[in-house]
Amino acid sequence: MKTILVDAVDTFIIEGAGIFEPMHALLETYSNQKVILTNADDEGIKRYGLDSVPYEVFTLRHNPDKTDSEYFKKMLEHFGWDTKDVIYFEHNPDAVKSAEAVGIAAYYYDKDKKDLESLKIFLDKNL
Q1: Residue 51 CB-density burial (10 A; 0-12 exposed, 13-18 middle, 19+ buried)
Q2: Start-to-end Cα distance in the chain
Q3: Rounded to two decimals, what is the model's pTM?
Q4: Domains located in the chain, CATH noted
Protein backbone atom coordinates (compact mmCIF):
# COMPACT_ATOMS: atom_id res chain seq x y z
CA MET A 1 0.00 0.00 0.00
CA LYS A 2 1.46 3.36 -1.03
CA THR A 3 2.19 6.16 1.40
CA ILE A 4 0.67 9.57 0.72
CA LEU A 5 3.24 12.34 1.07
CA VAL A 6 1.56 15.63 1.92
CA ASP A 7 3.03 19.11 1.65
CA ALA A 8 2.81 20.96 4.96
CA VAL A 9 2.46 24.75 4.87
CA ASP A 10 0.04 26.25 2.32
CA THR A 11 -1.41 22.81 1.63
CA PHE A 12 -2.26 20.77 4.75
CA ILE A 13 -1.60 23.72 7.07
CA ILE A 14 -3.10 27.12 6.34
CA GLU A 15 -0.88 29.74 7.95
CA GLY A 16 -2.75 31.46 10.76
CA ALA A 17 -5.64 28.98 10.59
CA GLY A 18 -4.11 25.56 11.26
CA ILE A 19 -5.05 22.29 9.60
CA PHE A 20 -7.14 22.63 6.44
CA GLU A 21 -9.93 20.41 7.74
CA PRO A 22 -11.60 19.60 4.39
CA MET A 23 -8.27 18.19 3.16
CA HIS A 24 -7.77 16.31 6.42
CA ALA A 25 -11.25 14.79 6.01
CA LEU A 26 -10.42 13.74 2.44
CA LEU A 27 -7.13 12.14 3.50
CA GLU A 28 -8.86 10.26 6.29
CA THR A 29 -10.99 8.44 3.69
CA TYR A 30 -7.81 6.56 2.69
CA SER A 31 -6.33 3.90 4.95
CA ASN A 32 -2.85 4.58 3.54
CA GLN A 33 -0.09 5.94 5.73
CA LYS A 34 0.34 9.71 5.42
CA VAL A 35 3.54 11.65 6.03
CA ILE A 36 3.76 15.44 6.09
CA LEU A 37 6.81 16.79 4.22
CA THR A 38 8.25 20.16 5.17
CA ASN A 39 11.41 22.24 4.98
CA ALA A 40 10.76 23.68 8.46
CA ASP A 41 13.36 23.84 11.17
CA ASP A 42 12.41 23.36 14.84
CA GLU A 43 11.15 26.94 15.15
CA GLY A 44 9.05 26.57 11.99
CA ILE A 45 7.60 23.28 13.21
CA LYS A 46 6.29 25.04 16.32
CA ARG A 47 5.24 28.21 14.44
CA TYR A 48 3.08 26.29 11.97
CA GLY A 49 1.75 23.78 14.50
CA LEU A 50 3.44 20.85 12.80
CA ASP A 51 4.20 19.40 16.22
CA SER A 52 0.49 18.66 16.66
CA VAL A 53 -0.62 17.32 13.28
CA PRO A 54 -2.20 13.85 13.09
CA TYR A 55 0.51 12.44 10.80
CA GLU A 56 4.23 11.87 11.02
CA VAL A 57 6.29 14.88 9.95
CA PHE A 58 9.51 14.62 7.94
CA THR A 59 11.92 17.53 7.54
CA LEU A 60 15.52 18.08 6.54
CA ARG A 61 15.45 21.60 8.05
CA HIS A 62 16.33 23.37 4.77
CA ASN A 63 19.33 21.10 4.16
CA PRO A 64 18.35 20.71 1.36
CA ASP A 65 14.91 22.16 0.58
CA LYS A 66 12.19 20.23 -1.27
CA THR A 67 13.04 22.13 -4.45
CA ASP A 68 16.24 20.05 -4.56
CA SER A 69 15.71 16.44 -5.66
CA GLU A 70 18.29 15.40 -3.06
CA TYR A 71 15.59 16.08 -0.44
CA PHE A 72 13.45 13.30 -1.90
CA LYS A 73 16.37 10.89 -2.25
CA LYS A 74 17.19 11.39 1.43
CA MET A 75 13.53 11.06 2.47
CA LEU A 76 13.15 7.78 0.56
CA GLU A 77 16.37 6.46 2.07
CA HIS A 78 15.27 7.52 5.59
CA PHE A 79 12.06 5.48 5.34
CA GLY A 80 13.51 2.64 3.23
CA TRP A 81 11.04 3.31 0.42
CA ASP A 82 11.26 3.06 -3.34
CA THR A 83 9.69 5.72 -5.55
CA LYS A 84 6.84 3.34 -6.40
CA ASP A 85 5.94 3.16 -2.68
CA VAL A 86 4.79 6.80 -2.46
CA ILE A 87 2.75 9.53 -4.10
CA TYR A 88 3.06 13.22 -3.32
CA PHE A 89 1.12 16.44 -3.60
CA GLU A 90 2.57 19.90 -3.13
CA HIS A 91 1.77 23.59 -3.77
CA ASN A 92 5.26 24.57 -4.97
CA PRO A 93 5.76 23.65 -8.65
CA ASP A 94 9.55 23.47 -8.21
CA ALA A 95 9.18 20.93 -5.40
CA VAL A 96 6.78 18.92 -7.60
CA LYS A 97 9.44 18.90 -10.34
CA SER A 98 12.19 17.78 -7.95
CA ALA A 99 10.01 14.90 -6.68
CA GLU A 100 9.19 13.88 -10.25
CA ALA A 101 12.89 14.07 -11.15
CA VAL A 102 13.57 11.13 -8.82
CA GLY A 103 10.54 9.18 -10.09
CA ILE A 104 7.85 10.04 -7.54
CA ALA A 105 4.30 10.44 -8.87
CA ALA A 106 3.55 14.02 -7.86
CA TYR A 107 0.66 16.44 -8.20
CA TYR A 108 0.69 20.23 -8.20
CA TYR A 109 -1.95 21.40 -5.72
CA ASP A 110 -3.04 24.99 -6.31
CA LYS A 111 -3.20 26.46 -2.80
CA ASP A 112 -5.49 29.27 -3.93
CA LYS A 113 -8.06 27.12 -5.74
CA LYS A 114 -8.07 24.42 -3.03
CA ASP A 115 -9.48 21.99 -5.62
CA LEU A 116 -9.97 18.88 -3.51
CA GLU A 117 -11.96 17.19 -6.27
CA SER A 118 -8.93 17.17 -8.59
CA LEU A 119 -6.71 16.09 -5.70
CA LYS A 120 -9.03 13.15 -5.03
CA ILE A 121 -8.82 12.14 -8.71
CA PHE A 122 -5.00 12.16 -8.47
CA LEU A 123 -5.07 10.10 -5.26
CA ASP A 124 -7.57 7.57 -6.63
CA LYS A 125 -5.63 7.18 -9.88
CA ASN A 126 -2.24 6.72 -8.24
CA LEU A 127 -2.94 4.70 -5.08
Answers
A1: exposed
A2: 8
A3: 0.97
A4: 3-126 (3.40.50.1000)
